[in-house]
Automatic annotation (TrEMBL):
It is found in: Cell membrane. This is Variant surface glycoprotein 1125.1720. It is a lipid-anchor; GPI-anchor. Residues 1-21 form the signal peptide. Residues 377-411 have a biased composition (Basic and acidic residues). It holds the Pfam family VSG_B.
Amino acid sequence: MASNIVVMLAIIARLAYRASGTANESVAAYHTLCAVVNIARGEPTTPEDTEGAAISQEITLLTELNITVADDDFYNQDFKEDPNNKITEANWVKHRAAWHTAKEQIAGNKLEAHGLKITRPLNSHARQTAAVVINRTLEMALERREDYKPLKKTEVEEALLTALYGPTKSLSQTAGESFGETGANACSAPGAAAAKPGMSLISDMVCVCSSTSGSNNADECLGAAGASACVYTNQNSAHTCAAQLLDGCPTAGKTKVSAAAIQATIGAFITGLKDKGGSSQAKNLILGTKNAATCDGAANPGCVKYKASGGGEMTIPWLTKLQEAADKLKTAKVQKARNMAALTEIRQLRSIAIQEYLKALKGDQSQLQKIAGDQAADPKKKEPDSNKHQSEDDCKDPCKWDETAAEKDKR
């Protein structure tokens, strides 16, 4: 991905060089902004969110197993919602509907998971043990689910579209949204009246490609006359020029946008922002015409002035939104790892619950059969405990006193 971005920036740099022999003129500024526009119109590489649905499925199964092995007093309750008898106990509120559904499926012999048909085990010590263990696994799974956070690709897309078009996230002709009410408002340094440079990428493109009369039809940026005049008189004239500038941006298809790609593009923009060879730009941060000191898209066209000398910190709204998109992509990558870890642990808890459920299905008989089998194979295994009792008073259940035994030490 990073190599693709480097190639794209190199292509744009060559185009700018061919169009103008002087660094930081309008055409170079246009292609600098085009690189950013391609990112803003790209496809964010937000990780796919597959864990949310999987975690919900595991929690549902644990809830089903939980009710399946519950004690009879609890299981035999009616879990239907009763509007005349609202129960507010926390667990009842959280799980009543799931318990009701699971119980109906058990009754209809319809509950299956992981190749198992889930049925209600007979009452036994094994079922009682399973009830305790499965209840705890459900509690732990619910706690672990709190670490899951959904991955929202739309948030990244919205930040990128806001960078491109302004707060409406689409091309608008309302003043103050995609474009300024005047070129002075859109292209001048902050601090002068309502000046707000960087309100959108598309607004800045009109600033650097406009001319005094608008008769150039953006040919300084496009390399040939465009279809419409390009002068930043107001939001309407800017809107007229904007579409052809977007269409004129060189592109190699829809860019896959990662946090690294955004950071590389921001770095390239900042590198091309200031031409130290221009006396005016030695004092100001201006993108566009080399020696401009004033930018307004009309009388002083061909540039956008982001910061005047001594004007404090430079703030570019669309640049802030780009950084926001990069930060969200970084956060999504970290959260993806957390979501995967939560799902893995919940699946481990589900495996424990299934093992306990299978033990409950077998009941206590298998344990009794094992004890009986061990004793049949080696009767002496029980003798030491029985032979400790040397009088009828000491001999307690399960041992029995045999007064007629031939050997006195084995009565």
